[in-house]
Design brief:
- The chain has 15 helices and 37 strands.
- The protein has about 1000 residues and is of the alpha+beta class.
- Among the domains are: about 160 residues, no CATH class; about 210 residues, no CATH class; about 110 residues, OmpA-like domain (60s Ribosomal Protein L30, Chain: A, 2-Layer Sandwich).
- The termini are far apart.
Length: about 1000
């Protein structure tokens, strides 16, 4: 065969073989690949696999899969569906050991269906188990991959989450991905990535302008438009006390992530975040306690891995916070911040995690925070239930840094409950804590706080104030200072049932407030301008104004659930649990500081009982008016105190420091009252007050005089000079009373004065007044202050009783004494007796003077008679016995011709006491005197001689008629203590 023929045959065979190869690659190989791929995937995954066809071109490096479907395990439901997967690879790069270049990868309409069955188990968990673990001994591959173009068109992910209740459904739809030049080669030019999707109807977009996979660096913009926070509620912990029910999150963030040379990752965020229409409820509560119309955050630089966040602007609009305090006193919002339950300790078999470096300290910086909104507290712990609402809240903070000592500028303004506005401006530092602010309040109202004031009084007025306050902590010690002033305009104290207010004050002002904790409290002046007070006593004797300020007893609280028991009985006390030895030891062992006394607020001795000095430079009442109306008497008593002015200078708690007081007023329209002195009412009470009341018309007190003493004053003017000294719970007072032109008359038959004192008031007045119907009385008061009580009726009776006592007691001051009862009523009067030497009946010169004074008393009181009653003393009996013994011994000495008196004593002793060894002479005489008998006749003779001596002196020397002297009848009384005497009994 010729050579050209052989070449033709070879070319023909080669062409046929090439054609066969092409036919095989184009037509047969895709079928083989499809069959093998379907079989292998089905066997590997245990799931049904469907693949319509495979497009394969080895010459161009293109592979396409059409209509791929992977079913769920043991189900015909789909797990993965791909409309078309198109891959084109550079053929030459497949044989290269350095880099694989994927020209294009396009996935059209992929659909993934996922179900979470448990916290760590999914319906594809068995597929994850097919992935072999990494081989630590295997060297990392040096081959790189370059993906020049990646596209996902119309993708979707549908996830069911069966863990939360109710189950969650997450949909990622319209997923479009477009990426270029994604490379794992070091130093490659960064690629780009764009993602668009809709997550549960929320648009999501990601635009990465620089993606460097090898360096772990990416810069991207992420946007989320209106993600519904209610979808995340099911994923919050079940024990979380609060959860959102509404709210949409919008994000526009720039994310930069990179990896350092040592492999440390870092992430940086910047951009805007916003929440609209946020509503948060407490568990098992239907209504939201927190609502936010809008929260906008501009993130300047946030590095979450480094725990460092800088926010340029935080704007909170439409804040609406609602808190509730139950009857047990618990505030629900405070309970939200309760201590979480301690985590369970790891089991013994659980290996401890390797200790790593401590996480960095979180740092938060907010360059500007602005808040607008309102807040309200509904308090069910008071009656009636009260809601305190703060409206129009505006808060601005600038340069807030935590931790750090940089000052924070703050500006707070809010509307107070019911009325008024408060504003606070200044600076603060968080570490260490300090505050320096100025505050202003205008037009505040006390009305919303009525349920918290345990008084019946209802107060109205406009409360205002200006202050500058500094608070700081250093070394665990809190210090605070505040300067400013506060005042109340048009203060009124009203009754709950309404009517005219019994107390009105045009203005009450505290100026020059200077408070320092814990060192001092100072006020330059407290001024009360034009107070008008009506003090009324009702028919039952109660002061109605005082009743308005009586503290109401607290209501009995129900059980902890706020409900009373259904049967009305108090809940049974639970039985105590058995106490272990250890718990008993803990209970019985007091804490180490239990025995230590509480530390004083301040060691400054000027603090007195308060603990730190309190000084008020001046307390002033200007142009006051007081009306007193007493309906407990008939007719009703009414009196006024007008043009009342009071000034107290130098009030202080410093021990020993006393304030000066001056006061003036007009009483009843024409009487003048002046008061001055010193006092120390703060701390231990001290007062030294003196004053004068002039030209007070006594007829104005006739309602009291007629009601209490059954007498009325026809005319008379009263003047009083008084002085009261109070110190160490003791009161000493003097009252110099001057009454001019006094005349009284009875108003009814029952004479209360005679019933109480024994003399009618007319007689008392006649006895104590002078020729001009005037009198002067001195009325002292003394005793413990705690036991000294008085009112108007007591004062009147004190005057009457003291006057009567003075009238009767005056003549007795020189000769005797006056006996009064416990109510200072006259019970009896007495004349001092005439005393004698033991055994004597001689009137001494001193007693002669006393008898002259008794005679003078009888001459001034012709209606008085005296009864003389002799009484022996014990010394008289001893003297009479000695006289009898001495006379008998002298007689024995004479008759027995004994040499001396001592011999007579010895003989008498031997006769009286035979067989007894004689003691010394003096002792013998003393025993004989003790045994000497005494007859009653001898005592009666002595008393008769004394009685005669007194009568003789009064009748003959002083000229007292015998008829005014009587002798007491009956036997003489037994011997009494003291000297023998003749007593006088006063009679008529």
């Amino acid at each position: 065969m010729p050579a050209w023929s052989r070449r033709r045959v070879v070319l023909t065979v080669a062409a046929a073989a090439a054609l066969g190869m092409v036919v095989f690659v184009v037509l047969v190989l895709p079928l083989v690949v499809r069959r093998v791929a379907v079989g292998q995937l089905a066997a590997l995954t245990g799931r049904a696999v469907a693949l319509r066809d495979v497009e394969l071109n080895l010459f161009t490096g293109r592979v396409a899969l059409n209509r791929f479907r992977l079913a769920q395990r043991d189900s015909s439901e789909p797990a993965l569906e791909i409309e078309r997967l198109d891959v084109r690879v550079a053929p030459l790069s497949l044989v290269s050991s350095e880099n694989v270049r994927v020209v294009e990868l396009t996935v059209t309409r992929p659909k993934i269906y996922v179900t979470r069955l448990a916290a760590d188990r999914y319906d594809f968990s068995d597929l994850l188990a097919l992935i072999p673990p990494p081989d630590p001994n295997k060297k990392p591959s040096t081959r790189t991959v370059l993906l020049e173009r990646l596209r996902v068109v119309g993708g979707g992910v549908f996830a069911r989450d069966l863990v939360p209740q109710p189950a969650g459904l997450w949909r990622i739809e319209r997923l479009d991905v477009d990426a270029t030049r994604l490379s794992t080669r070091q130093g490659a030019r960064p690629g780009r990535l764009t993602v668009r999707a809709v997550v549960n109807d929320t648009p999501l977009a990601l635009d990465a302008s620089a993606v460097a996979l090898a360096e772990g660096r990416v810069a991207a913009r992420v946007t989320v438009e209106g993600f519904d926070l209610a979808a995340a509620r099911a994923y919050l912990p079940a024990d979380l006390p609060a959860a959102p029910t509404a709210g949409r999150v919008t994000l526009d963030l720039t994310v930069t992530a990179e990896r350092a040379a040592d492999g440390t990752p870092s992430v940086a965020l910047s951009g805007d975040a916003r929440v609209d229409g946020l509503a948060v409820v407490q568990r098992a509560q239907p209504d939201a306690f927190l609502k936010l119309a809008r929260v906008a955050v501009r993130i300047k630089d946030a590095r979450p891995l480094a725990r460092d966040v800088t926010l340029s602007v935080v704007e909170i609009d439409g804040l609406d916070v609602r808190a509730r305090r139950d009857r047990a006193g618990q505030i629900d919002l405070l309970a939200l911040a309760g201590t979480p339950a301690p985590a369970a300790a790891p089991g013994a078999g659980t290996p401890a995690a390797a200790a790593g470096p401590p996480p960095p300290t979180p740092k938060i910086t907010i360059e500007r925070l602005a808040l607008r909104g309102a807040a309200a507290l509904t308090d069910e712990g008071v009656t009636p239930t009260t809601t305190l609402a703060l409206s129009d809240i505006a808060v601005t903070l600038e340069h807030l840094t935590w931790p750090g000592a940089a000052p924070v500028a703050l500006d707070v303004a809010l509307g107070l409950p019911a009325a008024g506005r408060l504003s606070v401006k200044g600076t603060a530092t968080l570490q260490p804590f300090s505050v320096d602010v100025t505050s202003t309040m205008r037009g505040g109202s006390i009305e919303p706080y009525y349920p918290y004031i345990p008084l019946r009084a209802r107060m109205t007025g406009s409360f205002n104030g200006d202050s500058r306050t500094r608070v700081s902590t250093a070394g665990g010690t809190l210090t605070a200072t505040s300067q400013g002033r506060s005042w109340i305009d048009n203060l009124e104290v009203r009754r709950p049932e309404g009517g005219a207010p019994p107390m009105r004050i045009a203005r009450m002002e505290m100026a020059g407030i200077d408070f320092g904790w814990p060192t001092h409290a100072r006020v330059a002046a407290i001024t009360i301008t034009r107070p008008q007070v009506e003090v009324e006593r009702d028919a039952s004797g109660n002061i109605t104004l005082r009743e308005l300020f009586v503290v109401d007893p607290p209501e009995a609280k129900p059980g902890s659930d706020g409900k009373a028991p259904a049967d009305g009985k108090p809940p049974a006390r639970p039985e105590p649990e058995p106490e272990t030895t250890a718990s008993a030891a803990v209970r019985e062992t007091p804490p180490p500081d239990a025995e230590k006394p509480k530390k004083r607020i301040s060691d400054d001795p000027r603090g007195g009982a308060v603990g730190f000095p309190v000084d008020i430079a001046a307390f002033v009442i200007d142009d006051g008016y007081v009306r007193f109306l007493d309906r407990s008497v008939q007719p009703a008593f009414s009196e006024t105190l007008s043009r009342f002015a009071l000034k107290v200078e130098g009030l202080s708690t410093t021990p020993g420091k006393r304030a000066k007081l001056t006061s003036q007023a007009i009483v009843g329209g024409d009487a003048a009252l002046d008061v001055r002195g010193e006092l120390a009412p703060l701390g231990e009470l001290y007062a030294d007050i003196q004053g004068e009341l002039r030209d007070f018309t006594l007829t104005s007190v006739n309602p009291y005089a007629s009601s209490f003493v059954a007498w009325a004053v026809d005319r008379g003017k009263l003047g009083i000079k008084f002085r009261y000294h109070i110190e160490r719970d003791q009161i000493e007072a003097s009252n110099e009373v001057v009454v001019e032109n006094l005349h009284v008359q009875p108003t009814r038959k029952e004479d209360e004065v005679k019933k109480r004192i024994g003399l009618p008031l007319g007689m008392i007045v006649a006895l104590i007044t002078d020729s001009d119907d005037g009198l002067r009385l001195s009325l002292p008061v003394s005793g413990p202050l705690s036991a000294w009580k008085t009112d108007v009726s007591d004062a009147i009776w004190a005057v009457v009783r003291n006057a009567a006592v003075n009238v009767v007691a005056a003549p007795f001051r020189a000769i005797g004494r006056l006996f009064t009862g416990k109510n200072n009523t006259i019970e009896s009067v007495g004349v001092n007796p005439v005393t004698f030497a033991p055994g004597s009946d001689v009137v001494t010169p001193e007693m002669a003077k006393h008898l002259t004074a008794v005679a003078d008393f009888l001459r001034r009181a012709p209606g008085v008679r005296l009864t003389l009653a002799p009484t022996p003393g014990r010394a008289d009996l001893d003297s009479l016995r000695a006289q009898e013994l001495t006379a008998r011994l002298q007689q024995r000495q004479r008759e027995a011709r004994l040499p001396d008196f001592a011999a007579a004593v010895a003989a008498e002793f031997a006769e009286r006491f035979p067989g007894v060894k004689p003691p010394a002479a003096d002792e013998q005489l003393a025993r004989l005197r003790a045994e000497e008998p005494l007859s009653d006749e001898r005592v009666a003779e002595l008393l008769a001689r004394r009685l005669g001596a007194v009568r003789e002196d009064l009748v003959r020397a002083e000229g007292v008629p015998e008829g005014r002297l009587a002798v007491a009848e009956g036997e003489a009384p037994p011997a009494a203590d003291g000297d023998g005497r003749v007593e006088f009994r006063v009679g008529q």
